[in-house]
Amino acid sequence: MANDSTEESFGCQHYKRNCKLLAPCCNKVYSCRVCHDDDELHVLDRKSVEKVVCRKCKHTNDISATCAKCETVFGTFYFCPICRLYDNIDKKQFHCDGCGICRAGGSENYEHCTTCVMCMPKGVPHKCIEKSSQGNCPVCFESIHSARVQTHIPQCGHLIHSPCYKEMMKKGLYSCPTCGRAMGDMSSLWGFLDSEILMTPMPQEYQELFREILCKDCSKTSKTKFHVVGMKCGECGSYNTSIEGPFVRKDDSGNFVLLTEAELEKLFHVPLPDLEPREVDEDNDNQSASGGDENDSDWQTEDEEEIDSDSSQHERDADHMEDITDNNQ
Fold first, then answer.
1. Which of 72, 104, 220, 268 is the most buried (most CB within 10 A)?
2. Is the model's pTM score more than 0.85?
3. Are 182 and 305 members of one domain?
């Protein structure tokens, strides 16, 4: 058998290996399935591949760990005959029968959730949602299960690609695109909005007016004082709310009554305060943007591609889950 110190330069931008795949769909040779899909107008089913070409001697082989002619080891660190996955880099790859693909990060660190139909990090609680990994990211509409990027798991349990999640946070969009709930611990942001309301007094005509709101976090309705900065839930204190009713005020008996047409007409001519952007404490801002909850996780999978969740971008070759939590880099 050939020396296992195969040249690491063999491979493509997605991963290192010592063989190429012969795609049965177009009878072309590609370094990997990703290279094929990037170049062709159709998708290669990796499990349909029956032949690989040795990079050293160019011999065409059946699916195997080594070349039948020169004995070159095709994947010096990992080989999965099911996924036709070869890798010269150790990423702690493992095949998950439940997922039906290979993942990375060490099988001892993950357990398959039969409800979500995906591997989850051991010791990290998550909200189970039936076949949650089988859908698409609600932002970019690309696959979650076979994504080549990390997937973020917010506390509501609806999966979203990490790059999409981070871009939403940068734009101040903290609500889950699927259910509308806040995607992390927003207590620091809610506290900031409390202070903003105190620093932004409403005109006298608005100070005793209320609106009915629906909280997207606790799903309860309440009547709260109207303010242009935000409408705070009277049940849980969240500002992740939507207005559900017209302006009302309290009468002498403390009951809520609708404004008259004359009162509304007068109200609409009263200018509202301009909202001046204020500086947010950077640590609190970052905590809100990242979710700030130890139950929030980043879950990365690869459909026979890049594995590293780091921005340095190693080659991806296992349907992987390397960095499932923010701190597990």
1. 104
2. no
3. yes
| Pair 103, 189 in one domain | yes
Share the mean pLDDT of the chain: 81
Number of domains the chain is built from: 3
Name the residue with higher pLDDT: 312 or 13: 13
pLDDT, tens only, 239-272: 999 999 999 999 989 999 999 999 999 998 998 8
| Residues 323 and 174 reside in one and the same domain | yes
**Token couple for 72:** 């070159």
For 29, the token pair is: 């040779």
Q: Same domain, yes or no, for 151 and 219? A: no
> Using CA of residue 147, residue 289, residue 295, residue 194, what is the dihedral sign?
negative
Closest CA to 324 of 199, 184, 162, 205: 162
Would you state the torsion angle of the CA atoms of residues 312, 316, 318, 322, taken in this order, to the nearest 10 degrees? Answer: 10
Q: Which long-range contacts (CB under 8 A, 24 or more apart) does 251-256 make?
A: 256/210, 256/223
Q: For 224-243, how does the pLDDT look when each residue is reduced to its tens digit (9 = 90+)?
A: 999 999 999 999 999 999 99
Does 233 fall in a domain?
A: yes
Give the separation between CA 48 and CA 267, rounded to whole angstroms: 69
- Who's near 217: CB < 8 A, 6+ residues apart? 181, 182, 233, 236, 238, 240
The sign of the CA dihedral 241, 242, 244, 247 is: positive
**174 and 307 co-located in one domain:** yes
Boundaries of domain holding 152: 92-199+297-329
Question: Would 172 be classed as within a structural domain?
Answer: yes
- Same domain, residue pair 37 and 54: yes
Between CA 172 and CA 239 the distance in angstroms is 13
Is residue 192 located within the same domain as residue 256? no
Identify which of 159, 141, 175 has the alpha carbon closest to the alpha carbon of residue 150.
159
> What's the one-letter identity of residue 305?
E
